[in-house]
Specification:
By secondary structure, the protein is mainly alpha-helical. The chain has one domain. It has 18 helices and two strands. A two-stranded antiparallel sheet has the order 1-2. Helix 8 packs parallel to helix 9, helix 12 runs antiparallel to helix 14 and helix 14 packs parallel to helix 17. The longest helix has about 30 residues. The two termini are about 40 Å apart. The N terminus is likely disordered.
Length: about 450
């Protein structure tokens, strides 16, 4: 039984890892075609590989300007790669099986279960259908809202800009085709700001949280519960995700507003309302989106470190965002609090967190932090530049964010390859770790005596 459990577990992990790798290779080939560039020339393999990786890993770091270098065909390829990367290989594979009317067997259902970290295989195909429909609806609404601004500004080209931006924002890819300054010209535009933040947050919440919230709302309406009563029926995961998302956005925005309030390179010249708007946008986009309305290179070092922390935490599980995830950070913090208070268990919302969840959270944090630290040291050793810029770049890459302090275009070939590997690890690593430590079938064959070890 143990052998069977291990085989299924590693097969799932390999399918996800290899699936993303294949998507990157195909994307690289398509982007190297003369048809993909505006000049009609072949794009170098490193730039094509970098762009394909940043698209599939929904990062957003770019070595060549997306709006200036890539043709409409190339931009469509990038958008499709971001959609695949955002929704995941398993979801897209299931989608094609549904289109081809192929039966979703037990093996496929187990893959879906592992991919979304669910406790049951019941209703999985329905869940995937809901995810696909929900994605289409949200991205369509986002594109229509963008069109109210982009069409008056850019004419018919604004239609494509709106579609591309909606896909990129929802998938937390962070790329746009508007111009060299991302969304800086719209720093004071409420429609663009709210639409982009809404898409980023919805993509980063995680699909299971969507449906849990919607189901509870439907039941609450049917049974005439108040909003406060309905909150009680949310799953622990949904409660934690919603709380951490709101907490990090608000606290991040307040810190950014305070630290950058008088900075002439960022918030300084803006009106008070626009400062608040820009601070909230910066707080949201660091949650692995990659768009920006203020200069990242102009940020104070203290603000840059705050942004690094927000980027490292990232979004929530089973969504389009990266990072170690909000729930991982919450479990770690609450575990520390429980130890300080002398409690045996990690508790939240009148529930106990399993020891396995605590161990998984610690493992994900430790490995991700180790990779981040190692990659930063290596990049700083081979790439001329400021250390804070190297750190910002690496955290952005491993958390699949896409924000850069104008550092990416100046990377050497070796440095670009380091970022490519880091982006891939960032997209695959946390998933692989979650799957690896998610086995309930693991049983210790031997149980050794306990002995005290001095720590701290």
């Amino acid at each position: 039984m143990k052998r069977f459990g291990r085989k299924k577990e590693f097969t799932t992990t390999r399918i996800i890892a290899v699936g993303f790798f294949v998507a990157i290779v195909i994307g690289t080939f398509l982007l190297m075609l003369p048809l993909s560039s505006k000049t009609g020339k072949v794009t170098g393999i490193v730039d094509a590989l970098f762009t394909s990786t940043t698209s599939v890993c929904v990062t957003g770091l770019v070595t060549v300007p997306t709006y200036a270098h890539w043709s409409l065909f190339g931009q469509v390829v990038i958008a499709l790669l971001a959609q695949v990367g955002g929704l995941g290989v398993i979801t897209f594979t299931t989608m094609f099986m549904l289109i081809l009317r192929r039966r979703i067997g037990m093996k496929e259902r187990l893959l879906i279960q592992d991919a979304y970290n669910l406790d049951t295989i019941q209703g999985l195909v329905v869940l995937v259908k809901k995810i696909l429909k929900g994605t289409l609806v949200v991205e369509t609404v986002g594109a229509l809202l963008y069109m109210t601004v982009f069409i008056p500004d850019y004419g018919l080209a604004g239609i494509w800009y709106s579609v591309f931006n909606a896909v990129s924002a929802f998938c937390n890819a962070g790329m746009d085709v508007i111009g060299p300054d991302s969304l800086s010209r719209y720093v004071g535009n409420p429609v663009v700001n709210i639409t982009t933040m809404g898409l980023i947050i919805l993509g980063g919440l995680g699909f299971p949280v969507w449906w849990n919230v919607l189901d509870v709302m439907k039941q609450g309406k049917r049974k005439r519960r108040t909003g406060r009563e309905s909150l009680h029926y949310l799953s622990l995961n949904a409660k934690l995700v919603l709380f951490m998302t709101a907490f990090l956005i608000v606290v991040g925005a307040i810190l950014i507003l305070i630290l950058e309030y008088q900075n002439p390179a960022t918030l300084g010249p803006l009106s008070f309302f626009d400062k608040i708007q820009a601070a909230f946008f910066q707080s949201v986009t660091t949650r692995t989106a990659g768009f920006c309305t203020i200069s990242q290179s102009g940020l104070n070092k203290s603000t840059a470190l705050v942004c690094c922390l927000l980027m490292f935490i990232g979004g929530s599980p089973s969504g389009t965002a990266g990072g170690i995830k909000t729930t991982t950070m919450a479990v770690l913090v609450l575990t520390v609090v429980s130890i300080i208070k002398g409690r045996r268990d990690t508790e939240m919302f009148a529930r106990r967190v399993s020891d396995m969840a605590v161990r998984r959270a610690l493992s994900i944090f430790a490995v991700s932090f180790g990779v981040m630290l190692g990659a930063t040291v290596i990049l700083a050793a081979v790439q001329p530049g400021n250390f804070i810029d190297c750190l910002y770049e690496i955290v952005s890459a491993i958390a699949t964010v896409g924000l850069s302090r104008d550092f990416t275009p100046h990377l050497t070939t070796v440095s670009r390859l380091i970022i490519i590997v880091t982006m891939y690890i960032g997209r695959i690593g946390p998933i692989s770790l979650a799957l690896f430590f998610n086995s309930k079938r693991f049983v210790n064959v031997k149980t050794y005596p306990k002995e005290r070890v001095s720590v701290g």
